[in-house]
Each structure stands twice: as C-alpha cells, then as structure tokens.
Amino acid sequence: MAIKGLHVVPSGGQWAVRRSGASRASNLFATEKEAVRNARERARSESGELYIHGHDGRIRERSTFGHDPAASKE
To answer: Which one, of 37, 46, 38, 36, lies nearest residue 5 by Cα?
Structure first.
C-alpha cells in the first residue's frame, strides 16, 4: 500500500493542505504555520508523508511518519 502524502502549498495569498494527486485543497489557512501544523498532525495520525513547498513551488521539507520504506535496514 502506498504511503499517503499531504502537501502544504501556497494558494492565492493563503496556504493549502492538499493530498497527493488531488486537484483541490482539503483545507485553507491564513498562515503557513497553521497549515503545516494541521498537515503534520494529519500525516502523523495517518502514518503518511508531509511535503512543505515554498513560494516557488519546490519542495522545501519532507517528513515521513510511521514506516519509511526508504530507510536503510540494519
């Protein structure tokens, strides 16, 4: 099963939280801090991934909650 991803992206003067592959935001927030807090809590509860984008659209930060398949096995 694929890990669920949540993206925090700028959206018309606000910040949106959007699921990977979705065309519409699931939530809008006035500040980036509020959007990141909401998305981080959701990603943690769903054992998913969080991607935080900058104003240029590029991924600035990535966090994985739960099992990370890319982690090295020791």
So the answer is: 46
